[in-house]
Amino acid sequence: MYTTMHPAEFASLAKWAQKTQRSPLQEMLFAAAKPEIISFAMGLPAPELFPVEGVMKAAEQALRDDSRTLQYGPPYQPLKRHIVRLMAKRNVICREEQIFITTGAQQGMNLLARLLLDPGGTVLTERLIYTGFKQVIDPYEPRVLSVPTDPQTGIDIGAVASILSRGARPAFIYAISSGHNPLAVSLTEAKRSRMVELARQYRIPIIEDDPYGFLNYEDAALPPLRAYDDQWVFYVGSFSKILTPALRVGWLVVPESLMPKVSVVKEASDIDTNTFTQRIIASFLELEDINTHLSMLRREYRARRDVMAQALRESFPAEAKWEIPDHGVFFWVELPHGMDAQSLLASALKRERVAFIPGHAFNVELSNEATNCMRLNYSHSNPELIREGIGRLGKLTREALNRKI
Amino acid sequence: MYTTMHPAEFASLAKWAQKTQRSPLQEMLFAAAKPEIISFAMGLPAPELFPVEGVMKAAEQALRDDSRTLQYGPPYQPLKRHIVRLMAKRNVICREEQIFITTGAQQGMNLLARLLLDPGGTVLTERLIYTGFKQVIDPYEPRVLSVPTDPQTGIDIGAVASILSRGARPAFIYAISSGHNPLAVSLTEAKRSRMVELARQYRIPIIEDDPYGFLNYEDAALPPLRAYDDQWVFYVGSFSKILTPALRVGWLVVPESLMPKVSVVKEASDIDTNTFTQRIIASFLELEDINTHLSMLRREYRARRDVMAQALRESFPAEAKWEIPDHGVFFWVELPHGMDAQSLLASALKRERVAFIPGHAFNVELSNEATNCMRLNYSHSNPELIREGIGRLGKLTREALNRKI
Fold it and tell me: CA distances (Å), B73 to each of A22, A33, A42, A191, B76, in order?
């Protein structure tokens, strides 16, 4: 008989995997999954805004039209045509030959990291960044060069320029230009131009992660970096936040010359992207008006954003700071220094039944930065729950601050 | 202005990616996609056997039941329950806690390779093996130890034992125990026991890839390796060949202690497995009798197998050799030595409009092994097309042989 061992005891577990653990986001997902918890933790879209009837009709059409709907298949060309049109709404001029369809944006990032990053290689990004990006690069045990981010204008371009001018040559720069996760900021126009100039000058590709670019709440939304350069910006897009996440379809916009290589990595990863859901999305975009759908989402999420801003003003301590996000689904709230968002979360879950993600979870390197910050999602809960949940969280935060003072 | 460059000119393309190319399977997929070609190339299931109505009903039920069907979500527990029952049909006793749901079997392999294999690490497998496996390990630039396979009894266990006894400690052994791809052989019972004994003795996990295990055509099908050991065999299963590939759902059966690590790698890869299609499969398995469906598939594919065997006997040169497969979707045909299946394919596509995969494409290392062999799929074409296509291919092969003699 053989006794059950902990996997770390396998001689053959890869080195990086021996030290890896569940991410804070995964822990949160489980903690916040209880119905009695008001959760501002995950970046979930509002399920009541999903176009269920439209998806149903599109699914029926896709299944009735063609037996290839349930077969393995090459990327669905009509969907690429729709994506080209969608990108044009953001001032990105691209061709179908530059569109690569992926199993969501997360896979898109993975495919690009696989192609660009050697084990032990170097990447450049912001100190506080989407945790899923850290998960993508962790297995490469990379050297991470990181720069600060200004809460009003985005990534510190001077710091990027300085790192590159001193000779660093990262495999790529990872950036979220609109609706930053977690910092809720969008890059200014001047910084967009400068970013792309640096990429060209030093011949370093930028991976532009843009899940929230279509969720803009002000009229004068800036185009993504990809609109400024078609050679050095590799764009990562997704239907998860603008249609539904469960279809698991995203896309890359990359130079056509890169396609054969991306295809190899994609086939190795999961053969092909779900033919059924690709065709559902294409049918949906035929049958429905995406502009109407996007306008509805912007209106609803803008309203939720405004409700959260109001609730924050009413309930949070006067010392707390935040900006009003012009894109995306998050507020980034900075509490007075010395306050510990992690222990605040423990009380919030236990006493107030409210969840959020403490800021330090977004550190790309081991660091104590942002221990006094919290990321709050406003897309998933309805306005009433937002008011209630922010009210409870504000009360808790004020009490914690008073105990400190 | 910046001119467009070939991606190999990016300083930052990862080393392995600079030399990678489209796989032979991908090239074939494109070549064989024309409707006038009779294709025995890919391992595609028969689209006319897809349960389209059942999927439609299941999709409607999943969408009407629960708005979470279109949301991000944790693995769908009712689907795990069904998989436990499905595995029990193969004499595998497992618990829901040991089931990990994946975006198809290909992703399952990827997740395990990520966890087990260090860059430059060692793997042990057969000389001729599924090309998708080679694609999975290529980015690790691994040392590959490979052993021959007997066309009637499967992997050369003596060679495996000898490699391990000489001190090699691969990260894992990769094996296809039933309906080998491409060699169409199933391991004997004695070899199954011995494989698992070796894994235990040397504490080396086996990744058992089993897409065809449920497609058995003889009554006395042997259980997978996972039935012999629950600690050292990591089982990779899939709905692609038994339901439809387009839903992109597969599963792992792994020790429960490995789950937290697998979850991390999965989330990094594509966040979660398609909630919609997971729920479609669970609804399908509620609404329909999977045994009836599997019996139908076995009956239809067995008939196609028999038609192909008959056509091979009638049309192929007497010197050609093959075994009748008891599982899966392929014949492996060995032509007389000196014949070149690659150039035969060129003529077959051009003159006879028939596609197949030349054997040498399945070499896990650079090698000239199996240049005289071909892999022929019998699941995708109907019996009439099988007769017609094998007739044409046989004629071409006899002519080529006569020119040689």
Answer: 16, 10, 11, 36, 8
Contact assignment for A103 to B270 by CB distance below 8 Å: yes
Smallest CA–CA distance, residue A194 to chain B, in Å, is 16
User: Can you tell me the distance from the alpha carbon of B250 to that of B86, in angstroms, rounded to the nearest whole number?
Assistant: 12
How far apart are the C-alpha atoms of B267 and B102, rounded to whole Å? 11
Which domain covers residue B392, as residue numbers? Answer: 20-49+292-404
The CA-atom distances, in angstroms, between B280 and each of B51, B81, B134, B251 are: 12, 14, 31, 15
A133 within a domain of the structure (yes/no): yes
Could you tell me if A344 and A396 are in contact, meaning their C-beta atoms sit under 8 angstroms apart? yes
Chain A: closest CA distance from residue B260 (Å): 6
**Cis preceding linkage at B255, omega within 30:** no
Q: What is the ipTM of this complex?
A: 0.94
Q: Tens of pLDDT along B285-298?
A: 999 999 999 999 99
Q: How many CB atoms lie within 10 A of CB A181?
A: 23
Q: How far is B319 from chain A (nearest CA, A)?
A: 35
Quick: pLDDT tens for B340-363. Answer: 999 999 899 989 999 999 999 999
CB proximity B66 to A under 8 Å: no
Residue B366 reports pLDDT greater than 70: yes
Residue A92 has pLDDT above 60, yes or no: yes
Q: Write the CATH number for B129.
A: 3.40.640.10
Give residues 128 to 187 of B whose Cβ lies within 8 Å of A.
Answer: 132, 135-136, 138-139, 169-172
pTM for the whole structure:
0.95
* Greater model confidence, A375 or A219: A375
CA distance B304 to B310: 10
Do both A108 and A195 map to the same domain?
yes
Question: pLDDT, tens digit, for every residue of B147-157?
Answer: 999 999 999 99
Q: What is the CA radius of gyration of chain A?
A: 22
